[in-house]
Write a structure and sequence with these properties.
Elements: H1 3-25, H2 33-43, H3 50-61, H4 68-89, E1 98-99, E2 102-103, H5 105-109, H6 111-131, H7 136-150, H8 155-164, H9 172-198, H10 202-229, H11 232-245, H12 250-281, H13 286-290
Antiparallel strand pairs: 1-2
Helix pairs in contact: 1-3, 2-6, 3-4, 3-9, 4-6, 4-9, 7-9, 8-9, 9-10, 10-11, 10-12
Bound molecules: geranylgeranyl diphosphate.
Geranylgeranyl diphosphate binds next to helix 4, helix 8, helix 9 and helix 10.
Keywords: Isoprene biosynthesis, Magnesium, Metal-binding, Transferase
GO molecular function: (2E,6E)-farnesyl diphosphate synthase activity; metal ion binding
EC number: 2.5.1.10
Length: about 300
């Protein structure tokens, strides 16, 4: 089977499981029904489910099928990711009107309720992690890793750097730090969660995390490139908006051609980390390698 067929089959099995788990388990019986509606509005709006799929791909790579408890712990990350998107879209942040093809949470429910829906999903993520039926030792490791990735030493720090520098030009190393924290940290955690649940040896984990970090960087460079190239309509919008806000992106800092080169180098490094780790420790890199096809 080719790598890409393997990924297609994997996604066909697990994306519906993730969607169903999220849909069926988002609490709808909270006292405040508008809050419940606002939380499920964004969670049910779809999305690629990349982060939980990466965690599940690590488990699959090591021959393990997720238990219901593991699926709950893994889906917690998608709740947290969805909170970050709701807050990122708020008028006080990016002020975006569309997300996942639908009106953003604050357009539909107002900024106050959208803030609370994000707060609710962030908290619920830790509820799912801590009440999931995985071992206490693994739960502690997962909670520690997720707080590191999502909090003030990870995603929130990256977002703060972004907010603070909206009107300042960053250097390339500074932009890299911003993206490693803002976007890369949750992708790092997605792979780390898989290694915790699969109980991989520390050297395997380190090799997979090196892959994850290059994956996260590539993901952001690719997103920056797509913002400029994806469609004439989007190109006009993104360019105007980014120029008006003096946004720090790879194309705005180094141009499109060099951004593409940086993307190619980063994807190649991710491949090398994975192939080397797999060859040293004797597992198949194919499924995780196939995830890199996302970048074309
Ligand atoms: C508000 C604390 C706080 C953090 C926000 C994630 C984030 C930090 C900002 C998102 C900014 C952004 C759009 C970055 C581009 C890369 C990215 C994270 C895209 C969204 O993730 P996808 O493509 O989205 O996985 P889907 O909809 O598929 O889940």
């Amino acid at each position: 089977m080719t790598q890409n067929n393997e990924l297609a089959e994997f996604e066909a099995v697990f994306r519906p499981q993730i969607n169903a788990y999220l849909h069926d388990n988002i609490p709808r019986d909270v006292n405040e029904s508008t809050l419940a509606e606002a939380m499920s509005y964004s969670v049910d709006a779809g999305g690629k489910r990349l982060r939980p799929l990466l965690s599940l791909a690590v488990l699959t790579t090591f021959g393990q099928a997720p238990t219901e408890a593991e699926l709950r712990a893994i889906c917690a990350l998608e709740l947290l990711h969805t909170y970050s998107l709701i807050h990122d879209d708020l008028p006080a942040m990016d002020d975006d009107a569309l997300r996942r093809g639908e009106p953003t949470n604050h357009v539909k429910f107002g900024p106050g309720m959208a803030t609370l829906a994000g707060d609710g999903l962030l908290t619920l993520a830790f509820q799912w992690l801590s009440d999931s039926d995985v071992s206490t030792d693994k739960k502690i490791q997962l909670v520690q890793a997720l707080t590191r990735a999502a909090g003030p030493s990870g995603m929130v720090a990256g977002q703060a750097l972004d907010v603070e520098n909206t009107h300042h030009r960053l250097t390339l190393p500074e932009l890299r730090t911003l993206h490693r924290e803002k976007t890369g940290a949750l992708i790092h955690y997605a792979v780390e969660a898989g290694t915790i649940l699969a109980e991989t040896a520390p050297s395997v984990r380190d090799g997979l995390l090196a892959y994850a970090d290059d994956f996260g960087l590539a993901f952001q460079i690719y997103d920056d490139i797509l913002d400029v190239t994806s469609s004439p309509e989007k190109m006009g919008k993104a360019t105007q908006k980014d120029a008006a806000e003096e946004k720090n992106t790879y194309p705005s800092l180094v141009g499109l051609a060099e951004s593409q080169e940086l993307l190619d180098d980063t994807v190649s490094r991710a491949k090398e980390h994975l192939i080397e780790t797999a060859a040293t420790f004797g597992f198949s890199p194919d499924l995780l390698l196939a995830f890199l096809s996302y970048f074309g």
